[in-house]
Specification:
alpha/beta; Rossmann fold; 2 domains; eleven-stranded mixed sheet; three-stranded mixed sheet; 16 helices; carboxylic ester hydrolase activity; Type-B_Carboxylest/Lipase; glycoprotein; disulfide bond; Carboxylesterase_B_AS
Length: 582
């Protein structure tokens, strides 16, 4: 079967306008050029599910209908309906509910390196970022140009977002997690079809950044993802982030408010009536109500996210059946090779718009304690004594001050650090403790600290205003070196940025191909990236930690080296405070 599939692939993609069969029908793509002039075949906008409209709104996805004539897989992939609060305060509605499409990119056979010329290629499936309410998989966000210089196949896909992807009534009427179930169906599509494109279904690496990274981590836990992948990469996100999972009490409140805002009921209305009403409304009308959830400008950013489901006759395939922390404590996860890490200044995701917009900054300082405690850091999720916790945070990060001074670099960096630690770094540390306690190996940890010409800090700022502060390495900046992103940036031009991109692409694709990021084909960089040691004390991994520090800047050069320190002082602070997660 493998050889038959491979022959189909070879004969198909050698054409100028390639036609490849799938189990649902043929698709016709187009030829494109990689960064270094290598031809690859691009197939965009392939449906992997029926349009999730009508009775399929707030329901598990279903396989698409078949077709006979070649599907023109050359169009821009539709965006899942959304309002992107990450990049502007009052975002327009964009996209459509009919958005469950995927993209496949594969190097042409004659341009592959000799050892892969007649072999099925390893597959990288990348899950897009966007806080579960924004983003998409199209080439304008996740352009494959850099990765297509390597002998791998790349797959990206959309999944339902926001209220359409994650609304739950906590019962059979709308059990939730539809966005994750979309992801599962996309991964099943890969298993059934990727050999037709020359891909190895037994060598699939799932990867993602931010919400995509947490999604990858969730797939390590969920029984629904069993057998659909073999390795994983999580960049800046995991299941213990306070934005990645909400408890039942919070979910009930959100659903009640959603019903109220759309005139579909309140907290006493039967869930069946609420969902019937919501299914009857135009999608744009539902999406307009998302402004009502904002308590501080665009916060809380994440309103809809993962939830625990109950298995039943009507919901036979729940994605999560217990909180993610319980999976980790019990060792109920797949111990596949895993790369995971953070960027140095994850908090720029929020701080750039808080401080570079005068109105937002002044509003923050006017109610600093309240907004920092309850909204930006969501401390009430983790403690019943947020006043004491905030006092400790203020002393550690802000020097005891209750405002941010844009003329004080330490004040600004303190705000960046506390958001980074609360949302990304400490949750990752806690996750790693549990994975290593249950002997998960290998896990490769990294910290990305390189500062190049471009930064997502500018994208997240909402404004072109500037302050006299040298921004560090923002959330999403690592993506600049994996994917071409014409939506926001030109192609990399600075020599050191291009060099950094070559290093990152090399390490990531080596992991996809070999399961080890250290095996470098071109010998350009001798890394010493050791996996984490599973022989740890359950409460502390700092003494035995091994990670890769990816540092430097466009002016002074690049430094990639092993390290044994992972934000030690800041992690020790969070270990010392009284929060439920500890």
């Amino acid at each position: 079967f493998v050889m038959i599939s491979l022959c189909i692939c070879v004969s198909s993609i050698s054409l100028k306008t390639p036609i490849v069969k799938t189990v649902y029908g043929p698709v016709q793509g187009q030829r494109e050029l990689s960064r270094y002039g290598r031809y690859y075949q691009s197939f965009t906008g392939i449906p992997f599910a029926k349009p999730p409209v009508g009775p399929l709104r707030f329901a598990a996805p279903e396989e698409p209908d078949s077709w006979t004539l070649p599907l023109q897989a050359t169009n821009v992939t539709p965006v899942c309906i959304q309002r992107d609060y990450l990049v502007t305060y009052n975002p327009p509605t964009e996209g459509t509910e009919d958005c469950l499409y995927l993209n496949v990119y594969t190097p042409e056979v004659e341009y592959r390196h000799n050892k892969f010329e007649n072999k099925l290629l390893p597959v990288l499936v990348f899950i897009h970022w966007g806080g579960y309410f924004a983003g998409n998989s199209g080439k304008e966000y996740l352009g494959p140009d850099y990765l297509m210089d390597k002998d791998i196949i790349v797959v990206t896909f959309n999944y339902r977002l926001g209220v359409f992807g994650f609304l739950t009534t906590l019962d059979d009427e709308a059990p939730g997690n539809y966005g994750f179930k979309d992801q599962v169906l996309a991964l099943k599509w890969v298993q059934r079809n990727i050999e037709y494109f020359g891909g190895d279904k037994n060598k699939v690496t799932i990867a993602g950044q931010s919400a995509g990274a947490a999604s990858v981590h969730f797939h390590l836990l969920s029984s629904e993802s069993e057998g659909l992948f073999h390795q994983a990469i999580s960049q800046s996100g995991n299941v213990l982030g306070p934005w990645a999972f909400f408890n039942e009490t919070y979910q009930k409140q959100i659903t009640s408010y959603q019903a109220l805002f759309t005139n579909c009921g309140n907290e006493t209305t039967e869930t069946k009536q609420i969902i019937e009403c919501l299914r009857g409304l135009p999608a744009e009308e539902i999406l307009k109500t998302q402004d009502y959830f904002k308590r501080f400008f665009s916060d809380p950013l994440v309103v809809y996210t993962s939830t625990v489901e109950k298995k039943s006759v009507r919901n036979p395939n729940p994605f999560l059946i217990q909180p993610p922390g319980e999976y980790l404590k019990k060792g109920m996860f797949r111990k596949v090779p895993w790369i995971t890490g953070v960027v140095k200044d994850e908090g720029i995701l929020k701080v750039s718009n808080l401080l570079r917009n005068d109105n937002i900054r002044n509003a923050l300082n006017n109610k600093f304690v309240e907004e920092i405690s309850n909204t930006l850091l969501a401390l009430t999720v983790s403690t019943t004594d947020s006043t004491t916790l905030y006092s400790n945070i203020s002393n550690f990060y802000f020097g005891g001050q209750n405002k941010i001074d844009i003329n004080n670099p330490n004040s600004i960096q303190g705000l960046i650090d506390v958001y980074s630690d609360r949302s990304f770094i400490y949750p990752l540390y806690q996750s790693l403790l549990l994975h290593l306690y249950h002997k998960h190996n290998p896990i490769y940890l990294y910290s990305f600290e390189y500062k190049g010409e471009y930064t997502y800090g500018d994208v997240f700022s909402f404004t072109t205003n500037d302050i006299s502060f040298s921004w560090g390495t923002s959330h999403c900046d690592d993506l600049l070196y994996l994917f071409y992103t014409p939506k926001y940036f030109n192609k990399l031009e600075a020599d050191r940025d291009i060099c950094m991109s070559k290093y990152i692409v090399e390490m990531w694709t080596n992991f996809v191909i070999y399961g080890n990021p250290n095996l470098l084909d071109d010998e350009t960089q001798k890394t010493s990236w050791k996996p984490l040691d599973t022989a740890i004390n359950k409460d502390n991994i700092q003494g035995l930690i091994h990670l890769l520090n990816i540092t430097g800047n466009i002016k002074d050069g690049i430094d990639i080296k092993g390290s044994k320190s992972f934000y030690k002082d800041r992690i020790n602070f969070w270990k010392s405070v009284d929060i439920l997660e500890n």
